[in-house]
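Why does residue order matter? Because the sequence determines the fold. Keep that principle in mind as you read this record.
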Amino acid sequence: MSLAYQIVVCGSIVPDPLQTLEPVTGPAGPALKNEMMLPAWLDPWAAHALFEGAHLAKAHPGSKLTLVSLSPKAKLQQVMMTVAQKVPFELVALDGPANGFTDSAETAAALADAIQSLAGRDPARLLVFGGWESASRGAGTTLQVIAERLGIADVFLGVDSLKVAGDGSLEILERVEGGKHQVSRCAGPPAVLGWATGSLPEPKNNPQVGMLNMRGVMPALQKAKPVKIAAEGMAFASVNVPKQLRETRIVKDASPEQIAAEIVQWIKS
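Structure:
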């Protein structure tokens, strides 16, 4: 049984992880210093979801891959110049904040509204992908709220693998505690999957794919809907970068038990 899927990937942009991030307090609350000047990239977890979605769409002819991104329009355009060369997709852009100081419930509401507004949306073929975690919005609740708003009951988080059985059912490999995995199954779409790492490497740049994508990306950016994340009622007491602490000792001939005991004692103190 071959089914053409509607695969929607939710993903925002984040600052380049090699940059030094300095939190500051602005008129609208916490923010990053010179945030609009920092180089940006597609969130790594969302990138895994996008690449896995592209692989699934390629394996099932007739499937459509859509990237829905809530990000500052100007920065998103810069990121799309690179991401568009990876895999073919259609962009739906929402112009709004993408930092880690936004409310996940409001973010999910905006993304869910955008998904509901997609032309030809068919719940019987809909798969919503996203990052299990996020380099900026690490609340871990955004996808669950999206699922509730879309009325989707099957939600899988920490996904490393997705297989489609001959009868159209989905077999999903999920991470659980203790470094273990569990195999979950559902009859088929609709479903929401939060990807951990996936199993595919980052695709190589393909200028031809990029040219085809940019024909749709630029118009999508031009008509990006402004989204205001008010975060009313939220307050941040303080925002700062975690302090680095390094204590190094060189000890010879210590047994694993002695090392473990010393580490436990250091943690307790």
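The helical segments are 44-59, 73-83, 104-116, 142-150, 207-222, 256-268.
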